[in-house]
Design brief:
The complex is a heterodimer of chains A (156) and B (364). Chain A is an all-alpha fold. Chain A is 56% helix and 0% strand. Chain B contains 13 helices and two strands. A two-stranded antiparallel sheet of chain B has the order 1-2. The mean pLDDT of chain B is 86. Classes of the chains: A mainly alpha (156), B mainly alpha (364).
Chain lengths: 156, 364
């Protein structure tokens, strides 16, 4: 007689066999007409510019870090949730202390702005901004580099 | 049911290891049949429901009213040329469809389809399910990274950030059920909810549980309704469904992490996505809506009707997911993170604290 985890292993093997079988059938009956363009990376139908492995937003790392903290919390909470009913107020209070420490950490991350996703602040120019562009420091609109800006006062 | 199957095979093949192993394999292959039949149905339902919601007819040519369209689609995908970009990381590129499908199929191992069938009776059932669904995340990241495509990379990063973020509120909602049930075994959780709709965990769980009486369970009902809502929203995000589909936002990222995949590999990603929809819907129905239990107590109960109730509830939630897809617009990435971290996680923690307080208060 095999144990219950042998069933899990059977599920694992069956998934591999199913995926492998599907890909093998596909391999037997598909056409293979390779050409250079077809095998290039898709980028709007043009030749891709540079490598696909580019820099991405640092926020993804922050999210991953905070996730690990909370996931560990949940991992600890699951065994407690199964038995706390038999253990009364002692188990309850201990877990409240654990949760309180985590909630303080969560509040800290929240106040520090680590839970905010950076988004571009749209700049809507008003007439006064454009008139006073020379005087406002620093300017929200970068001045054109090649052409010297014409002072508004002299335009009259 | 497993013992019956084993006895049948021993009768056919004689006593020995072969019959034992074959019994396990046949027993564990049954969910695969369910997934394939369900996928045919769900693909057609998605096409037809989207068409009806937009006042179209949907596919009409293949078979009567287009009901054979999914079969035609699968046969087409099976014959398509498989294109691997020359710049891709070949090993990871070919490995990721395996991981994604294994992750979702391993989830089926602990689902109790009826009182007689659960692939594996693990005492850590739901905990195991949350753990193995992590394989899907690894597979998605692998697919996006190995394609060497900017759209794939962005899609994968967004998808992973979203799935891991929403795993926390989902975990907290699952935790509040485990706290009442006192077990992580999904078959036992289903059995606890026997005896009619009032014993389901969405209404506070069984009213005759040892330790506390009916009043406690009714006091838990409003909290559990919030927990159910949290789980349902988080499950939409975990399967990358609208309104949380920015990883696959067609208008900006082509197809997200599977932009470069074609033929059978694409089909496997697609199948895994539909299988995941069934897993999260099934978990929602087991944890909160009684699993295979009939809502009328003994009436229409029993193992065979149990399978009908279980699949009926799960497929109902899949239909709701499709309905939501064609109703709501897509969220922006900062709105997505705001809802997860600043709304759902505080509410999830509050449900865990409230359930713990109410249960401990009444039990002692």
């Amino acid at each position: 007689m095999l144990g219950e985890f042998s069933h899990v292993f059977a599920f694992f093997l069956l998934a591999i066999v199913f995926v492998g079988g599907g890909l093998f059938t596909n391999m037997l009956i598909r056409p293979t007409k390779a050409n250079v363009l077809k095998h290039s990376v898709y980028e709007c139908g043009e030749d891709p510019i540079g490598s696909g492995w580019i820099k991405f937003n640092i926020r993804f790392y922050v999210v991953a870090l905070i996730f690990i903290l909370f996931d560990v919390e949940i991992v600890f909470l699951f065994p407690w949730a199964v038995v706390y009913k038999q253990m009364g107020w002692l188990a309850y209070n201990e877990m409240m202390v654990f949760m309180a420490i985590l909630i303080i950490g969560f509040a800290y991350a929240w106040v520090k702005g680590d839970l905010d996703w950076v988004r571009p602040k749209p700049y809507i120019a008003s007439f006064d901004d454009l008139v006073n562009r020379r005087h406002s420091q620093p300017s929200p609109i970068p001045a054109p580099q090649s052409v010297a800006p014409v002072p508004v006062e002299e335009m009259a | 049911m497993f013992d019956g199957l084993r006895d049948l095979l021993i009768g056919l093949l004689g006593k020995g290891d072969l019959a034992d192993v074959l019994a396990v394999v046949v027993y564990c292959a049954l969910p695969l049949v369910v997934i394939l039949l369900y996928a045919l149905f769900a693909i057609l339902a998605e096409m037809k429901l989207s068409a009806w919601l937009q006042d179209r007819l949907g596919p009409m040519r293949v078979g009567p009213w287009g009901i054979l369209q999914p079969i035609a689609d699968i046969l087409k995908l099976l014959q398509k040329e498989d294109i691997t970009p020359t710049q891709a990381d070949k090993k990871l590129y070919n490995l990721s469809p395996f991981l994604v499908f294994i992750g979702s199929y391993l989830g089926f191992a602990v689902l109790p389809f009826s009182a007689m069938y659960a692939g594996a009776r693990l005492n850590v059932g739901i905990f195991y399910l949350v753990a193995v669904s992590g394989l899907v995340v690894v597979g998605i990241l692998m697919a996006g990274w190995s394609s060497n495509n900017k759209y794939s990379l962005f899609g994968a990063m967004r998808s992973v950030a979203q799935i891991v973020s929403y795993e926390i509120p989902a975990g907290l909602a699952i935790l509040s059920v485990v706290m009442i049930a006192g077990t992580m075994d999904l078959q036992t959780i289903s059995k606890l909810q026997e005896g009619g709709v009032q014993n389901w965990f969405i209404f506070g769980g069984p009213k005759n549980l040892a330790g506390f009486g009916g009043a406690t369970a009714w006091a838990l009902a409003p909290v559990m309704m919030i927990a159910f809502l949290i789980y349902f929203i988080a499950s939409l995000a975990e399967t990358n469904r609208v309104p949380f589909d920015i990883p696959e936002a067609e208008s900006e990222l082509v197809a997200g992490y599977h932009t470069e995949y074609s033929a059978m590999k694409f089909a496997l990603f697609f199948l895994a996505e539909y299988a995941n929809m069934l897993v999260v819907s099934a978990v929602a129905s087991i944890l909160f809506l009684g699993g295979w239990n009939s809502p009328f107590g003994e009436f229409l109960g029993g193992p065979v009707m149990g399978l009908v109730w279980f699949l009926g509830k799960a497929i109902f939630f899949v239909m709701v997911q499709i309905w939501i897809r064609w109703t709501l617009p897509r969220l922006r990435v900062d709105q997505l993170m705001h809802i997860c971290w600043k709304v759902m996680i505080p509410f999830g923690m509050a449900t865990v604290l409230l359930v713990g307080t109410i249960v401990t208060w009444f039990a002692h």
